[in-house]
Design goal:
By secondary structure, this protein is α/β, with parallel strands linked by helices. It contains 14 helices and nine strands.
Length: about 290
Amino acid sequence: MAKVAFLGLGVMGFPMAGHLAAKGHEVTVYNRTFAKAEAWTKKHKGSAAKTPKEAAAGKEIVFCCVGNDEHLRAVVLGPDGAFAGMGRGSIFFDNTTASADIAREFHAEGKKKGIDFIDAPVSGGQAGAENGQLTVMCGGEQGPFDKAKPVADAYAKAVTLIGGPGAGQLTKMMNQMCIAGIVQGLAEAINLGQKAGVDMDKAIGAISKGAAQSWQMDNRWKAMVEGKFEFGFAVDWMRKDLGISLAEGKRDKAQMPLVALVDQFYARVQERGGNRWDTCSLIQLLQKP
């Protein structure tokens, strides 16, 4: 069993850290709001720290799942940051969806201190985190990955090393781009079916058994038909992720006309107050134009 820390106890990090504790690892948690860390210790076996440095001290692996590049800098760098508390040979395993740039930057910074950094964004949403069924896409070096993977398996169904530093984040960008296109296509299809008076239960039952099948169709069609979006992966977070993708695409001269368009649609959802709605709320723009 490993001595680990987990930084960030949001809707993803809270259950992810819980799975690590349930597997018998020695877990210390940190959250910007300390009460959240205390609440975690009441539900799971482990301890709470008041700074990332304190949480990371003496740990073999430091896991992290925060909001964005800015939040990641706040918990990694500085006198109270995780790097200040980590020892040589330790691993920072970052589950945040962030930019490939910051992954490469922290990999280089970690090397100076003898710390291995792995960018390891996840897919599967809150349900995947709660059920320990996340997909983890990693960028980094083989040796540290091989040490961290058996521990990360506690909250994942698949943990894959894609390539060097930043490769995990680039793969997550691809993941989010695919989701954006699929959800928009699904929204338009369901909206057509509704307006044409098609029996949606039978229609989805039929096409979900063929080439159109997707996770989004299986798990979001009912919410789209019913217009219920107060759950799931928030539009605000999807826009953050698509923004990262679009910035990377501009840098790499990779055209993304569909992603740019769907990002604009999500901006319209935000204008309607749907910041915390699930990403399937794209259909609301069609149902109530």
